[in-house]
Design goal:
- The chain has helices at 2-29, 34-43, 49-58, 67-90, 100-123, 129-139, 143-171, 187-198, 214-224, 243-251, 266-269, 272-279, 281-285, 299-305, 364-379, 388-392, 420-431, 451-465, 478-486, 500-508; strands at 177-182, 204-206, 231-235, 255-258, 292-295, 312-315, 331-339, 342-348, 354-359, 402-406, 409-414, 436-441, 468-472, 494-497, 516-521.
- Helix 3 (49-58) packs antiparallel against helix 4 (67-90), helix 5 packs antiparallel against helix 7 and helix 7 packs across helix 9.
- Strand 13, helix 19 and strand 14 (494-497) form a beta-alpha-beta unit.
- The protein is an alpha/beta fold.
- The protein folds into 3 domains: 2-152, no CATH class; 173-392, UDP-N-acetylmuramoyl-L-alanine:D-glutamate ligase, CATH 3.40.1190; 402-521, Mur ligase, C-terminal domain (Protein-Tyrosine Phosphatase, Chain A, Alpha-Beta Complex), CATH 3.90.190.20.
- The longest helix is centred in the first third of the chain and has 29 residues, at 143-171.
- The strands form 2 sheets. It has a 9-stranded mixed beta sheet with strand order 2-3-1-4-5-6-7-8-9, with helices on both faces.
- The radius of gyration is 26 Å and the shape is globular.
Length: 528
């Protein structure tokens, strides 16, 4: 039987490697936070339910040492291996990044797994080995938390060293202008748009992709900052109260941009008041000679902005003048016109200067973000007329209202982390096109107790803007479907699918004349 034990050990190790990789990936997506990871595991326990069946099949091995006992376990292990290979194939929205921290965590977890198997082989006699193999795979779910606790002293020491080094580098460039950019949504787009506008006039460094955590910012500074840099655009993300303050204590921004405040990450913020106060930690950190640049279209920002001295507003609405004595006039985007090739609009400054702009981007939220970038660049001394060419060159940020033409179809890719304001703006933009307007969505997540309410509202908005609605995921999209039906939407034009590929296939086969516009609104994070 030794050969069977050896085969079982090899199969367990191979399967365990993929189970381990998957759970480390989820742990990374959950920000290496033990509590957040455990909460996510609790809500998605069924996704790894196959692991809990393994020890059940391994129990007979405690009493019987025979080949027939091994066969069901081996078959189930092969099924488990194939399942986790499948999860690896579909979890591509944000891939596992093999940082040094992840590598250290993997080593620690591999040692813990080996210890479990060794106990089954040596301490509990060989007759316990079959059961210990199956049990070791179940324990893989919790190993990231255990490994993180074990590695915590080392990780803390390493992080302190990196932070100190980043502060040293910043100290060597005292003339560097640091602009902090935060918001519940829109901050990544704002960063890229502003970089395009400023790069023609300054040497600009930005945090790449969605590097908006303290260690992501530290890594950017240590690996990419040079003495030539004149402006550092620092994206600042937050999932908990105090996260923005921590980033400000690290980089000490001179200017700050708040793109939006809304019900995002309510699972960790708990209340909208906490979201507002956390985003405005950036405003609290600015020096007296710094600029606070605010999205005037956002009601929560306008209310909180009254507590600060002379903020600069940008808005797609006229909030100044005699009719609005309590509002502060700022930069405005007027005469917004949408076409299949992009958007045209006119910018009016607080002093009354006007300039027309055209861009290849679509969507109201793109207009407001580009306006924010124009506002910031103009306040930094760049004339409006010198921004026109850069605005024409702006490219869509991946998965944020990016138009992809396919003959008689146009895909509008807005699959990056949908939110209540963005989803409403997206379907309203879809409604502006002439043709068949098709929405594909799995709904919104990370909205805490408000999740069902906001998805219901999304359904009511979609009912007024779409010709067809194809939902992905039956349980999660029930509130959207209810919102559609309560709004009088034709139920024959609303269908539910298990996979986005099936919804897309159905959209391609919608009959009727005219160009088809297919809006992909949100793609659930891999840890959902």
């Amino acid at each position: 039987m030794i050969w069977l034990d050896l085969f079982l050990l090899i199969l367990t190790c191979v399967t365990g490697a993929f189970v381990l990789r998957y759970n480390v990936h989820m742990f990374q997506l959950n920000g290496y936070k033990n509590r957040e990871h455990l909460n996510r595991l609790k809500k998605s326990a069924g996704k790894q339910g196959i692991l809990f069946a393994l020890p059940v099949f391994g129990i007979p091995g405690l009493f019987i040492k025979a080949v027939p006992v091994y066969i069901p376990v081996i078959i189930l292990l092969l099924i488990t291996l194939r399942y986790y290979l499948y999860l690896r194939e579909i979890n591509t929205k944000k891939k596992l990044v093999y940082t040094n921290r992840v590598k250290r965590l993997l080593v620690t977890e591999a040692l813990l797994s080996a210890a479990v198997l060794l106990c089954g082989w040596l301490l509990f006699e060989r007759r316990f080995f079959l059961f210990s193999c199956t049990l070791s795979l179940v324990l893989q779910i919790l190993l990231p938390v255990a490994g993180n606790l074990i590695n915590h002293p080392v990780e803390s020491a390493i992080n302190r060293h990196y932070i100190y080094d980043a502060k040293r580098i910043l100290g060597q460039n005292p003339d560097l202008v640091i602009i902090g950019i935060t918001g519940s949504y829109g901050k990544t787009s704002m960063k890229y748009y502003l970089n395009t506008l400023l790069s023609e006039h300054f040497d600009v460094l930005i945090t790449p992709e969605s590097f908006n955590t303290p260690m992501g910012v530290v890594r950017t500074i240590r690996e990419h900052m040079t003495p030539r840099n004149e402006i550092f655009l620092c994206e600042m993300g937050a999932r908990h109260v105090g996260d923005i303050r921590e980033l400000c204590d690290l980089v000490h921004p001179k200017h700050g941009i708040i793109t939006s405040v809304g019900p995002q990450h309510l699972e960790t913020f708990f209340t909208i008041e906490n979201v507002v106060n956390t985003k405005f930690e950036l405003a609290d950190a600015l020096p007296e000679d710094g600029m606070l640049i605010l999205n005037g279209d956002n009601e929560l920002i306008r209310e909180k902005g009254t507590e600060y001295r002379d903020p600069v507003y940008y808005s797609t609405e006229d909030r100044g003048g005699p009719g609005n004595p309590d509002e502060t006039a700022g930069y405005r985007a007027e005469k917004i016109r949408l076409s299949r090739t992009g958007t045209e609009f006119t910018v009016v400054t607080p002093e009354g200067e006007e300039e027309s702009f055209s861009m290849r981007l679509i969507g109201a939220h793109n207009v407001i973000n580009v306006l924010g970038a124009i506002t910031t660049a103009h306040k930094l001394g760049v004339p409006l007329r010198k921004l026109k060419t850069a605005v024409r060159r702006l490219l869509p940020v991946e998965h944020r209202m990016k138009m992809i033409p396919h003959g008689n179809y146009t895909i509008i890719d807005d699959a990056y982390n949908s939110n209540p304001a963005g989803s409403k703006a997206a379907v309203e933009t879809l409604s502006m096109f002439e043709g068949q307007r098709i929405l594909i969505t799995p709904g919104m997540v990370e909205l805490g107790e408000k999740e069902e309410e906001f998805n219901y509202r999304f359904g009511t908005y979609a009912a007024a803007c779409c010709d067809y609605v194809f939902l992905v995921g039956r349980k999660h999209t029930e509130p959207i479907l209810k919102g559609l039906t309560d709004s009088g939407f034709d139920t024959e034009r609303a269908e539910v699918f298990d996979r986005i590929e099936d919804a897309l296939s159905r959209a391609y086969n919608v009959k009727g004349e005219g160009h088809k516009y297919i809006l992909l609104e949100n793609d659930l994070p891999d840890n959902y």
